Amino acid sequence: MKRTVNDIRIVFVGAGNLASGLAKAFRRQGARIVQVYSRTEIAARTLAAEVGAEHTADLSQLSGEGDLYVVALKDDVVKNLLPVIAAARRDALFVHTAGSLPLSVWEGSGAGHYGVLYPLQTFSKRREVDFRVIPLLVEAARPSDAARLKEIAGMVSDRVLEVTSEQRRSLHLSAVFACNFTNHLYDLAARLLEKAGLPFSLLLPLIDETTRKVHELSPRDAQTGPAVRNDLSIIESHLDALSATPEVQEIYKLLSRSIYEHHQL
Amino acid sequence: MKRTVNDIRIVFVGAGNLASGLAKAFRRQGARIVQVYSRTEIAARTLAAEVGAEHTADLSQLSGEGDLYVVALKDDVVKNLLPVIAAARRDALFVHTAGSLPLSVWEGSGAGHYGVLYPLQTFSKRREVDFRVIPLLVEAARPSDAARLKEIAGMVSDRVLEVTSEQRRSLHLSAVFACNFTNHLYDLAARLLEKAGLPFSLLLPLIDETTRKVHELSPRDAQTGPAVRNDLSIIESHLDALSATPEVQEIYKLLSRSIYEHHQL
Questions:
Q1: pLDDT, tens digit, for every residue of A79-136?
Q2: pLDDT at A3
Q3: What does the alpha-carbon distance between residue A147 and residue B93 come to, in Å, rounded to a whole number?
Q4: What is the ipTM of this complex?
Q5: Range list of β-strands (E), B141-260
Q6: Residue A68 in contact with residue A92, Cβ under 8 Å?
Q7: N or C, fewer C-beta in 10 Å, chain B?
Q8: Alpha carbon B207 to chain centroid distance?
Q9: Surface of B (128-157) touching A: CB under 8 A
Q10: Is B198 in Cβ contact with A167 (below 8 Å)?
Q11: Which of A181, A206, A223 comes nearest B255 by C-beta?
Q12: Using CA of residue A97, residue A100, residue A106, residue A109, what is the dihedral sign?
């Protein structure tokens, strides 16, 4: 790792949505992507072609030329593969990208320099995201590795922050509420409208405004609706309208009660 | 109602966030706001001053000069007051603005021309909204009143749609999911981050992207996260992290199960 940050050579272990977004972002900043590994050869080849790298579907053929190895694999397979990955080059820096895996998964892997590089964002194949505004949360065991990692992350994002494994778990959990669960509520709303013969697009201005509001107000101050007003006649009418779908009715009840109780505090 | 739509004279019965936004939007399009009523005199006076109208806090003093009376009061008081309001001028057009009240609340009020004008949006005192993109959902008993109402609504919005009372109830219910419940999930996420010593603002890029995605993909296709992948080790770890707040843990369980089950269909 004697090169300057802009000359960095990166190996991507994984070629999913996150790896793909991150590899392209580093490439745009002039980093050299040496190699892309994926168990699925077509995925490895496709991303490799986009970022000017070699590709492999054989983990034992991982390049020894990387300064940084970015491991973006499914959580349940990461741990077993770390010793194989760390064997590629002992003195390189190794990071995983998982919100839910602690730094300590690297212990015993054989890697001397390791850490975590967690982008707090949702990635889809069909959408490019702007990495500059995405928080990149970094962690490393050694202070010198943490400093190096912050410098590297700073190539692609203006929002680099060092957090502990415990904080990262809280971030990941809060992201499930703010992104995955929120999207499911949009889905439930879409189904209700579909049954009524109305397009989901009618809700988009409301959804946009709900999002814009929390840029200016705290979510607590932004809360509106029948539950926070404890408007029981509307709530009853809504529960009645949901009687054919008890599991959706249960979600309505639980969230309404939670809103009401949080605002009594 | 012999005047053209742009010469329309409007009386606002109510001076809350919705009435305020709507009155200003009509005023900007050249409509004349004749009078603003609110039980709270200061609210009536404040909005009246902003839109160049008279004001009153006495419903028996409602102006007889309106072509259109817009009733934007709390749902639970609307019904009892409609006969008093309708007495102001028998041949005018009367509308309420509630998502959850059927058109039929006007029956027996004495109004000859009546309907509903429901803006599908969330209104806050501190934020101005752009009415042109807000869906305005209209309904009337007589076709000629519906046509007139669509023309009037078209002054302030480019998205005017005629819906039935049943469809409007579905829209209101879906808005509770997509706006009120979504905002509460943001609030729960904010609390989790606060406990971890991290600012809510870290989540904003993720929240923005979650919203942008449903402009391009259906919410179903946009779904990501541990529940849709059925990643049990992450789900277990999250439930464990929520063990101190059983009601939030219950929300996590219920929404995760709902996501998983909907995506098995």
A1: 899 999 999 999 999 999 999 899 999 999 999 999 999 999 988 777 778 899 999 9
A2: 53
A3: 69
A4: 0.91
A5: 160-162
A6: yes
A7: C
A8: 21
A9: 129, 133-135
A10: yes
A11: A181
A12: negative
